[in-house]
Recover the amino acids of this structure.
C-alpha cells in the first residue's frame, strides 16, 4: 500500500464535504481495497461511510422496501422484512460471493460500482427501484449507464434504495465458479402493470430485455420465455463463455425463474 489519509465522518453531510475535497468513498471495501492492492486505484484520501448510522437499515414504506446503502448483504439475506415482502431479493443477497463478502459488502457499494456481473444491479433494475442519494432520487432505468458507470455525479452519495414490492419475483444466477459473480443472472419481477426482466453478467452493463418482458406480460409461462429469440450479437464473449452460450443462459435462467414463481 501507499500513503493516504483516512477519514471516518459521522454524518452524510460531513462525508459529502470530504468528498468535495477529493476523498474516495469506502463502503464495504470489496471492490476498492482489491483495486488499491493491485495499484489500479490510488486515492489520496479515503472517506469511510461505516460510522454513519443513518445509512444502514431496512424499513417498509407503503408498498415498498427502503434499504439503506450501508446495509450488508448478510443483513438483507437474513431480514424477515425482506423475506416476507421480496423473498427474491433476500435470495439474491444470500448468493453473493462467500460468507466473508456478504458480511462486509453493502447494497450501496455494489450499486454504485455497477460491476457488469454484480447481482444487485439486476434487482434494482428488475424491480424498477429508485436510487436515493444525498441530492436527489434516480429511477433505475436512468441509473445504470455503462460498464462501471452510473448516473451519479461527482461527490454524490447513495443513501438508500427504494424497492417496489412486486406480485412475485425470482432471481436465477449461473455462477462463474471461481469468482462467484454472475456468468449470467436474470431477475424477473411481475407487477400489475407487466413484467420486468433484468439481465446481469451477459453484457458490459445490466440491461432489461424487452422481448422477454413483452412475451411474459402476455403469457407468464416458461414456454413463452422459451419462444423468445435471444440475440447474442451484443453479449460478452470471453474465456468463460461465448456470446451464444450466454444468450442461451439468458433464456434458460428466465424460464427457470418463471417456473419457480409459478410452480410449473
Amino acid at each position: 500500500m501507499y500513503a493516504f489519509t483516512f477519514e471516518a465522518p459521522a454524518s452524510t453531510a460531513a462525508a459529502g464535504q470530504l468528498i468535495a475535497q477529493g476523498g474516495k468513498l469506502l463502503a464495504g471495501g470489496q471492490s476498492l481495497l482489491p483495486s488499491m492492492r493491485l495499484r489500479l486505484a490510488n486515492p489520496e484520501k479515503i472517506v469511510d461511510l461505516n460510522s454513519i448510522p443513518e445509512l444502514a437499515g431496512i424499513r417498509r414504506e407503503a408498498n415498498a422496501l427502503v434499504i439503506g446503502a450501508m446495509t450488508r448483504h448478510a443483513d438483507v439475506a437474513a431480514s424477515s422484512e425482506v423475506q416476507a415482502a421480496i423473498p427474491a431479493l433476500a435470495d439474491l443477497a444470500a448468493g453473493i460471493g462467500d460468507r466473508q463478502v456478504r458480511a462486509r459488502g453493502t447494497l450501496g457499494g455494489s450499486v454504485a460500482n455497477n460491476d457488469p456481473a454484480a447481482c444487485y444491479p439486476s434487482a434494482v433494475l428488475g424491480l424498477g427501484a429508485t436510487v436515493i442519494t444525498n441530492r436527489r432520487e434516480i429511477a433505475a432505468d436512468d441509473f445504470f449507464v455503462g460498464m462501471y458507470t452510473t448516473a451519479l455525479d461527482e461527490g454524490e452519495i447513495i443513501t438508500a434504495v427504494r424497492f417496489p414490492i412486486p406480485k412475485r419475483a425470482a432471481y436465477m444466477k449461473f455462477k462463474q465458479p471461481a469468482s462467484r459473480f454472475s456468468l449470467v443472472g436474470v431477475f424477473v419481477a411481475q407487477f400489475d402493470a407487466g413484467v420486468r426482466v433484468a439481465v446481469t453478467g451477459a453484457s458490459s452493463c445490466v440491461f432489461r430485455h424487452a422481448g422477454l418482458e413483452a412475451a411474459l406480460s402476455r403469457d407468464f409461462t416458461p414456454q413463452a420465455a422459451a419462444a423468445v429469440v435471444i440475440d447474442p450479437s451484443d453479449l460478452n464473449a470471453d474465456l468463460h463463455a461465448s456470446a451464444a452460450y450466454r444468450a442461451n443462459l439468458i433464456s434458460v435462467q428466465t424460464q427457470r425463474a418463471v417456473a419457480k414463481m409459478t410452480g410449473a
